Amino acid sequence: MNYGEILSKAWKTIWKHKILWLFGVLAGCAASGTSGGGGASGASSSSITTQPGSLDFLAPSTQAWLNDLGQFIVDVPVWVWILLVIGLVAVGFFLSVAFLMVGSLGQAGVIAGTSLADQADPEDKTLSFGTIFKALKPHYWKVFLFNIGFRLVGFIITILMIFPIIVLAFCTCCLGLLLLIPVGWLIDTLVNFVVIAIIEEEIGVFEAISRAWQVITRNLVSVLVMFLILGLGGLIVGLIISLPLLIIPVLANVIITGGQAVTVGLVISLLLSLVFIPLLVFLGGVLKAFILASWTLTYRRLAMAGELTPTVLSDKTDEE
């Protein structure tokens, strides 16, 4: 398999059909997760001697506010907290489903768009959102149901495997956890190929799982090489993209405040982060589109030409 040809064509495809960038940004929603946490504290007093649980080191106004907050929490009925927790869980669930729906749309869009572009003449006009949407529409719900089913099964398996994984790590001094790396690689690749098979070959979910497994096992070395290229390459590019978000706010904080004014520094860092986050999301979407396009072309090259029957995609191209 010509890896250079696949990577080159994947880049040329997303560069010519820039609408795939939008689908790449949407595809990132399927795997998006936010984690945050941090804080900064400083104390200039030379000696603080307080008993455990004491708030004497805080300003009187802060102590009073914390005491009032604690009393308010105590006074709130238990049923209110129960309803609050249920509400937060419900909101989290619906947001997760919404992100997964949007992510599935983006994932299917990049794959369908890449397939259309691979079949089209190089001189054909660029693909539009409508053209790609018409191509993915018959397969969208299958992709979404597969994604949500995969996450549910993965969650259940994770819960069931927590204890065995802990035992494995303890008995092997964590070296046994290295066995999870090829398992994770196989699962990640299988998921990509299942979605591609659903769209590319217009088949059902279970048939697509069987088909994806067949393509991977018959071309294990080629798929492994491509995974290493895209996995390591994507990791390096992702780190490069993320560096400005991590470094520039800190440097600006040090240059402007000298690292002394903690509150001002935090505000500056937050504002600069808000500026860079949209750029980070956009560049991450372009990277996601490139990776999905590369996997789609890889699947098309590995699968036998006679076994691929993307007639619907071809007909839609002709209609446009």
How is this structure best described in words?
76% of the residues lie in helices and 0% in strands. It has helices at residues 3-16, 19-27, 60-75, 78-119, 129-136, 140-171, 180-200, 205-218, 220-257, 262-302, 311-319. The radius of gyration is 25 Å and the shape is globular. The chain has 320 residues and is an all-alpha fold. The protein has 11 helices and no strands. The two termini are 32 Å apart. The protein has one domain (3-30, 60-319). Helix 6 runs antiparallel to helix 7 and helix 9 packs antiparallel against helix 10.
Largest sheet: none
Structural class assignment: mainly alpha
Alpha carbon gap, first and last residue: 32 Å
String of helices and strands: HHHHHHHHHHH
The tally of beta strands, per DSSP, is 0
Q: What is the helix tally?
A: 11
Spatial shape? globular
Mean pLDDT metric: 78
Number of domains: 1
Summarize this structure briefly.
By secondary structure, the protein is mainly α. The protein has 11 helices and no strands.
SSE arrangement:
Layout: H1 3-16, H2 19-27, H3 60-75, H4 78-119, H5 129-136, H6 140-171, H7 180-200, H8 205-218, H9 220-257, H10 262-302, H11 311-319
Helix pairs in contact: 1-10, 2-4, 2-10, 4-5, 4-6, 4-7, 4-10, 6-7, 7-8, 7-10, 9-10
Question: Characteristics of this structure?
Answer:
320 residues; mainly alpha; disordered C terminus
